[in-house]
Each structure stands twice: as C-alpha cells, then as structure tokens.
Amino acid sequence: MKKNLLGNTGLMVTEVGFGVLTVGNTQLNLPIPEGAALIRYALERGINFLDTAQYYQTYPYIREALKGTDFDPVIVSKCLYGGYKDMEEAIEEARREMDRDVVEVFLLHEVRSEKDWELRAGAWECLQDAKSKGIIKAVGISTHHVDVTRLAAGIPSIDVVFPLINFKGLGIRDGEGPGTREDMAKAIKDAADAGKGVFAMKVFGGGILLKDYRQAVEYVKNLPGISSLMIGFGHTDEVDRIIEMMEGTLSHDYVPDMSNKRIFIDQGDCEGCGACLRRCPNHAIYMNETGQANVNYDICLTCGYCAPVCPVRAIIML
Ligand code: SF4
Ligand code: SF4
User: Fold this and answer.
1) Ligand 2 centroid distance, CA of 281 (Å)
2) Does 306 contact ligand 1 (Cβ within 6 A)?
C-alpha cells in the first residue's frame, strides 16, 4: 500500500490506517487472539499505521498481534487527561502494555476547545519531555472541532493533528455548535501547510456512510493535506475492500453488507444529552444509571436515525 510522509515528523504511514477501537471491549469485544489476528492480517496486507488510546483498552490486542513478528508499525496512542503525571502514566502504560520502547505518536485525546487545550498544559509539557527523551517521536492532538484544528495549525510544537471529517460533515463541531466539512477541510489544509501530519477519523461517519462507500473514501482521500485515513475494521473482508478501493481495483457495484451491523454507543463520549433517545422512532434507547444512553438490541432496527443527531459522535455502526 502507498505510504505518505506524516507532515514533518519523518514517519512514513500507509494511506489507510487501522483504528483498533473496533476490536476492543466498547465495540466488538473480540477475544484477544481474534482481535490480534485481525490486526495482524491488516499488517500482512501492508497497513503500517495503528491507532489506539489509553481509554480504548486495546493494547493487549496490539501486543499479541506484533508478538514474534518483524512488523514495526507506526502506533498512535492518546490520553484524555490533562495533568503531567496523568500523561506520564499513560505513556508508560502504553509502552509496557504493548511491549514497545517507543510509541511513535502520542496525542492529547479529543481536545474540545482552546480552553481545553490550555487546561491540558501539564499533559502537553509531559509529551514534550517524552519526545525529547526519544520514547515518543511525534506529539499532537485529536479533535472533532474545526476551531481546534485551526488553532493547532498555528502552534509550532504540535507535530500531528487527527481531526474528524467525512463527506456529509457528520459530527464536525465548531465552537459550541456544528461545523461544516468545508471549514474543516480548510483547517486541515492550513495545518498540513504548516507542516503538521494530518490523518482523518470517521471517514464513514461512524459506519452510517458505509452505504456510500466509494464517495466517503474518495472525498477524504482527495482532500489536500490528508496523509492517511484511519478506519476501524471488524473483519478481514473490510481490510481487503479498502485496499482494493485505494488501489483502484474495487468492483464498481460494491456495496458493503450492512446486515450484521449494529449500533454502538461509546460510553466514553456520550454526554447524556438525550437527543438520540428523542430521535429513535422505536424507543430502543434508554438512559442508564449513570445518565448515558444505551441501546436495547431486542427492539433496535439498526435504522441509523439516532447517529446523526448525536452532537459528539458517540453513536456508531459496526
Ligand atoms: S438505530 Fe434506529 S432503532 Fe436503533 S437505536 Fe438508533 S434510531 Fe433507534
Ligand atoms: S445523542 Fe449522543 S451524547 Fe446525547 S445521549 Fe445520545 S449518545 Fe449520548
């Protein structure tokens, strides 16, 4: 698979990466050997870019996938917390749990505003120190926000930006309200022009845009400044299809099989606003004891109507 330079980091990454959140306990919850086999399959097919996070609890899958192999992928991890010590522990946990001396890229996970960026100054300082020690090669942020992507473009110490973008603009935020794909595309280009390595999340809008597979991939792939598309795979077929898509050999009438897809609500992202509950025509969503949304699979029809109304893109289809 074609590789691109990730901004000024010196890292070469394949034009598609594997977001391994899918295999973990908040999504498909695959047994470790099964999830590891899927990651290894992607590596064998040439993908060299893996995205994980402290919160995903997927380090054991990556460790198992790499065990006894010569694969040396570029691994991204991230931490939600803002303090120096929090980040220090997160970096050590990642190195220990994945059995890696170096984690190539480490990010502040899901920066939501300029204020949020400022509040995480301690974690950022820790990332700088880790980079100077050589245990991380590049540092940056992930975000759903246009305003934060724009901010990142102007901050010299940020090497890498991991923004959300898709052709319908699903889940893009700008300040307190929704953002547009055009504004995010402009912010991405500005970040890339400033030397940041930029790779995209939620290309399929959390699975909702899978039915428009070709359009979804082409839109993000052709955006100026994007080095890689980070995609969550649940099966080896999905790895094969994206490779064919990138190589231009995918059948023109390919439509992903959605029959086994299910709606998931990411409990780490859900803010309990209730918008999905109000939108669901089948009353298949309820709030749990901690005030977060859950799906009743006995009555959910996988129509997908709930996903676009979620302001934080906590609802995905897998
Ligand atoms: S997919 Fe449809 S039925 Fe299922 S929870 Fe969402 S809106 Fe309700
Ligand atoms: S719309 Fe999103 S944030 Fe709001 S309750 Fe539903 S899942 Fe949670």
Assistant:
1) 15
2) yes
CATH of the domain at 269: 3.30.70.20
Q: Which ligand is nearest to the CA of 305?
A: 1
CATH of residue 229:
3.20.20.100
Number of helices (H) and strands (E) in the chain: give both, helices first.
Answer: 10, 16
What value does the mean pLDDT take over residues 85-109?
A: 98
Average pLDDT rounded to a whole number, residues 81-89: 97
Which of 112, 264, 273, 306 has the most ligand 2 atoms within 8 A of CB, as the residue to mutate? 273
Residues 119-130 as b/e (b if ≥16 CB within 10 A, e otherwise) read ebebbbebbeeb
- Domain count within the chain: 2
3-state helix, strand, coil in the chain (%, to 5): 35, 20, 45
> How many Å apart are CA 257 and CA 90, to the nearest integer?
37
**Domain range for 309:** 263-317
**Could you tell which of 112, 276, 292, 296 is best to mutate to test the pocket of ligand 2, judged by most ligand atoms within 8 Å of the CB?**
276
What is residue 313's predicted lDDT score, i.e. its pLDDT?
85
pLDDT confidence of residue 317: 83
The fraction of the chain above a pLDDT of 70, given in percent, is 100
Average pLDDT score over the chain: 95
CA distances 27 to 16, 69, 98, 219, 265, Å, are 20, 26, 20, 26, 8
* Higher-scoring residue by pLDDT: 162, 171: 162
Q: What is the pLDDT of residue 87?
A: 98
Kindly give the distance from the C-alpha atom of residue 258 to the centroid of ligand 2, in angstroms, as a whole number. 23
